[in-house]
Design brief:
By secondary structure, the chain is α+β, with helices and mostly antiparallel strands. Among the domains are: 64-242, Sandwich (Immunoglobulin-like); 447-558, no CATH class; 566-653, Immunoglobulins (Immunoglobulin-like, Sandwich). The structure holds zinc ion.
């Protein structure tokens, strides 16, 4: 109240008379404010800590969940149905008590009410060609040991809520840190003929050939970065899975042969004595040994003695994020070995003319990647020919090509390269496809060069010039986009070619192959069987390379900045000590790069210099001054086309 009355008194006072305004001299304008918008500013990454450390290592408190499965299914070839049950032992290594868990029900993409069904035209690559299906979960129970010693385990039905291709399961008892929950699930689904180019079946005169994947309800990943990863399976985005041991049994008609992830546990029951002897020989053989020769396909003698209408094949896989299998009555089967690893191929007679070389391609790929990057950690590597164009699962890949030797090699070495990314280094494929497709496409460059040394590989995927031609069209997208948000027409460029070209550029032009290889191997070693994020990769590489590559990661992976380097002009002048040249360079593209500059002098001599990327620290123009022996008559940037320059018309002066 007091304050208000004082204010009124002040307002009522008569102001003093105003004098003539004081004329102040004109002030200079304020200097413009300035912030660091340089492409070289430090890339903002999540704050490191004890989970994921500053040097890009898993931290001392790093944790991840573990999922072990025991699965037993039967394949009904009359109705194309997979039916069975799985037991899941889920171990909570997180510091959190979990009241519910999430599962991935990928088969639900084939439900008519699924989002993937609505998004994809029927004939799209990742659709189901009009197929209507999905999982039927018959029961979902928590299992606990019986209360009394020797008593049967107790089962409690759990409440489940399906949300498209994911399902929440409410636990009847919270799962504490360090605790383990065991689930028992009975389920079935019908196998689509065209399963999003990832699984399916194909008809042959001898019967159907099945390639089976996304075939059991799988744990969603719970991680320290996002908690539950519950992105829908829409088709284009692949998978994110926990590691564990998986034992599985597949019951098929007696005449079928099964190829599956892992070690075959019961060869005595499903193979003939001759086949077992051939497999033992193959393991020690550099070249392919027929396990089932073409002439033997379909013969009753390829099956063990007995009359049971079905046989059950049992496989065991350690430290894997998934398992898949294939089954057919008409497989040719051959195998060889390297370093104790069994290389195998399974293909129908229709593929024989090309596929007789498959096992050699498998062996080359596994050996090459093992020796160059990280030892293959599994006991077998399998290539299967069937309807799926090209798809990878731990220890087993599906490749469709039956017509072209280089084509089959390309898809085989690519799908097997996935054994390193994402099977060993388990990134989130649905969010960051570039970390598996792109890294793998990069590995493939070198594998292919060794297998086909006579071919000219310079303009293929991952090469700077090929990439620049695409980037110049303006259809580039940031590889950092989640896989399902990349336009399908650009997927091969954005998730495969661009990251491959980026790593190639890093290895050959920005750093050098010795440092790069050591750093990339270190990244694989640090994150083998773990879940790295993009920041972990960037940090790990910088730590091992000894470089701040913020400018490169940002421009290449987060944005669509282009490389465009130019020589604008050259001036020379003579002083008392000799001749000086000033070469006016610019980089009008958003992405700086080191500069390869070739100078031609009046006497016809040529000199090439490499200018570091730091020449662009102060902006996108740089005056390079140097002593020269004679007048400069020509200056050219990147004459060998090692950089992805999208406008070469400004690379040469005059
Ligand atoms: Zn791939």
């Amino acid at each position: 109240m007091m304050v208000v009355s004082l204010l009124i008194a002040a307002l009522q006072q008569v102001p003093p008379p105003l004098g003539a305004p004081v004329k102040r001299p004109q002030l200079p304008p304020l200097p413009a404010a300035w912030a660091d918008t340089s492409p070289f500013r430090r890339l903002a990454l999540p704050t490191p800590g004890l989970l994921r450390q500053g040097p890009g290592r898993p931290g001392t408190r790093y944790w991840q969940q573990r999922a072990d499965y025991t699965i037993s299914v039967a394949l009904d070839t009359a109705t194309h149905t997979v039916r069975g049950r799985e037991s899941i032992r889920y171990t909570n290594h997180s510091p959190d008590t979990l009241g519910y868990v999430w599962f991935q029900l990928d088969q639900n993409i084939y439900r008519e009410d699924s989002r993937g069904h609505d998004l994809n035209p029927e004939d799209a690559r990742f659709a189901g060609a009009g197929f209507s299906g999905g999982y039927t979960i018959e029961s979902f129970d928590a299992v606990r040991p019986g209360a009394a010693r020797g008593a049967a385990p107790g089962k409690t039905a759990l409440a489940t809520t399906v949300n498209g291709t994911v399902m929440r399961v409410d636990l009847d008892r919270p799962l504490p840190p360090g605790g383990t929950a065991t689930f028992d699930v009975a389920y079935h689904f019908q196998v689509p003929e065209h399963g999003s180019d990832r699984m399916g079946r194909e008809r042959f005169p001898e019967g159907w050939l099945y390639e089976i994947a996304q075939w059991y309800p799988r744990m969603a990943v719970y991680d320290d970065v996002r908690g539950w990863n519950t992105e829908q399976y829409l088709g284009q985005g692949e998978f994110y899975l926990e590691y564990g041991d998986i034992d599985f049994a597949v019951t098929v008609p007696r005449g079928f042969v099964v190829a599956g992830t892992g070690t075959l546990l019961n060869p005595l029951e499903v193979l003939t004595p001759a086949q077992r002897a051939r497999l033992a020989r193959a393991l020690r053989s550099d070249s392919a040994v027929a396990i089932i020769a073409k002439a033997e396909v379909g013969s009753a003698s390829t099956r063990p003695a007995g009359t049971a209408p079905t046989l059950t094949w049992r496989f065991s896989a350690k430290n894997v994020r998934d398992v898949a299998w294939a089954a057919a009555p008409n497989f040719i089967w051959d195998a060889s070995g390297w370093n104790g690893i069994l290389m195998q191929s399974f293909y129908p007679p229709a593929a024989d003319s090309i596929w007789r070389e498959s096992t050699r391609m498998v062996r080359h790929s596994i050996k090459h990647y093992s020796e160059k990057w990280f030892p293959y950690p599994y006991p077998t590597a399998i290539n299967v020919n069937g309807p799926v164009g090209g798809m990878e699962y731990p220890m087993i890949v599906f490749c469709a090509n039956r017509t072209s030797r280089p084509g089959l090699f390309g898809v085989t070495t690519h799908e097997l390269g996935h054994q390193w990314f994402p099977m060993v280094v388990g990134n989130n494929e649905r969010l960051y496809a570039w970390m598996d497709e792109g890294f793998n496409s990069f590995l493939n460059i070198y594998s292919a060069r060794v297998y086909f040394p006579e071919r000219d590989w310079l303009r293929t995927r991952g090469q700077a010039e090929a990439w620049a031609q695409f980037a110049a069209t303006g259809r580039d997208e940031p590889p950092m986009l989640p896989a399902d948000r990349i336009s399908p027409e650009a997927l091969g460029q954005v998730a495969y070619a661009k990251p491959a070209a980026g790593l190639y550029l890093l290895r050959h032009e920005i750093v050098d192959s010795t440092r790069f290889d050591a750093a990339f191997r270190e990244y694989i070693r640090r994150w083998a069987f773990k879940h790295p994020t993009p920041a972990d990769f960037f940090r790990s590489m910088e730590d091992a390379l000894g470089e701040d590559l913020s400018w490169f990661w940002r421009g290449w992976f987060y944005r669509t900045d282009l490389v465009d380097q130019a020589v604008d002009s050259v001036r020379t002048r003579r002083d008392s000590t000799g001749m000086l040249a000033g070469i006016f360079l610019s980089s009008p593209g958003g992405l700086p790069m080191p500069v390869d500059l070739r100078l031609t002098f009046a006497d016809g001599t040529v000199e090439q210099v490499r200018l570091p990327v730091e020449i662009w620290y102060e902006g996108n123009r740089f005056l390079y001054v140097r002593r020269v022996p004679k007048d400069v008559i020509k200056a050219e940037i990147d004459p060998e086309k090692n950089f992805p320059d999208v406008r070469r018309g400004n690379n040469t002066w005059p």
